[in-house]
Amino acid sequence: MVIGDDRGIRIRVPASTSNLGPAFDAVGLALQLYLTLEARELDEGPSRMEFFGEDAQLIPSDDSNLIWRTMTDIAVEAGSHLPFLTLRIENEIPVAKGLGSSAAARLAAAAAVNFFCNLNWGPEELLQLVTLREGHPDNVAPSLWGGLVASMGGDRIFCSRSSFPPNWTVIAVTPDFELETSLARSVLPLQVPRQHAIYNVQRTAFLMAQLAQGRSEGLREAMSDLLHQPYRCELLPGLKDVLAMENYDGLLGVALSGSGSTVIAFADSHEKEIGARISDIYKAHGLLSQVRLLKADNTGLTLQPLSA
Fold first, then answer.
1. Are 130 and 140 in contact (CB under 8 A)?
2. Angstrom distance (rounded) from CA 15 to CA 306
3. Mind listing the pLDDT tens digit for each residue in 82-92?
4. Where exactly does CATH 3.30.230.10 map onto the chain?
5. pLDDT tens digits for range 220-262
6. Class in CATH terms, 8-163+296-305
7. Predicted structure pTM score
8. CA R_g for the chain
9. Which positions ≥6 away from 74 have C-beta within 8 Å?
10. 10-residue stretch averages of pLDDT, the chain, 308 residues long
11. What stretch of H or E contains 7?
């Protein structure tokens, strides 16, 4: 991570999709959809903030803003204090729609505190800090490292990163429907049948092996799941039909992105047709949706000093 001019920094963090079907709370993929934070030190206060882009109407620009609140909390916990700042946030990531918006915001905040408070934290410290606030690393790790990341929590977080096939497209279809993470988790059973656990373990192992090699055979089956998606189908109109949609040329697999409401599909051709089909399914259930044709981000969080 580059530390440059102490007057300002541009921090860019990619969105992420997690679970990929069976790999519940264990795997995530960074996407070329970004939150960009430009922060500059001011000679005098007060600090101020501007927010532009996706879902701007949902984002507060006062002390309750997630980025500012996280920056303040982390600085206090580190025994430091922030200078007066001006923050400019450009956001492309849908908020609370399953594409890692909160993980990206918290990573940007942690990186900004690291810079302005001269804390000299490395990526591992940022991963631990943000995961503690997120509750699990499956969105944090890919947004930090880029690419396809399997992560394992505990006293220490372990991550294994692979590059995602660059010629594949990630079709992200976001319906106009907010599915709160807390609600999406509340419907999951506390216990599952052993056969369901075996089903998911087999598919997760096969999915990761194929993705790491850039192989598409069997991905549609490998992205099926019995631990979370069947229960969440009751919360999101149309999800059951999307997951069961017929095969299309180019379609490699389909899954709920995180806890939703976005659905992702992997494709090696016919991306527009696949996206339109998923959108049509949602429309049949009374939901409008936005289709994004994305590539994987294999870079992760980047920092660029700003001139004074």
1. yes
2. 23
3. 999 999 999 99
4. 8-163+296-305
5. 999 999 999 999 999 999 999 999 999 999 999 999 999 999 9
6. alpha beta
7. 0.94
8. 19
9. 109, 110, 113, 129
10. 62 98 97 98 91 87 89 96 95 95 97 96 96 94 97 91 95 92 92 97 97 95 97 96 95 96 97 97 97 97 88
11. none
Give the long-range contacts of residues 48-53, CB within 8 A, separation 24 or more: 48/86, 48/87, 49/86, 49/87, 49/88, 49/89, 50/86, 50/87, 50/88, 50/89, 51/89, 51/91, 52/88, 52/89, 52/90, 52/91, 53/89, 53/90, 53/91, 53/92
Q: Which residues pair with 266 in a beta bridge?
A: 170, 253
> In whole angstroms, what is the distance from residue 104 CA to residue 66 CA?
11
Cβ proximity of 255 and 225 under 8 Å: yes
3-state secondary structure of 283: helix
For the record, the structure tokens of 133 come out as 């606030």
**Residues comprising the chain, all counted:** 308
Please tell me the class of the 169-294 domain: alpha beta
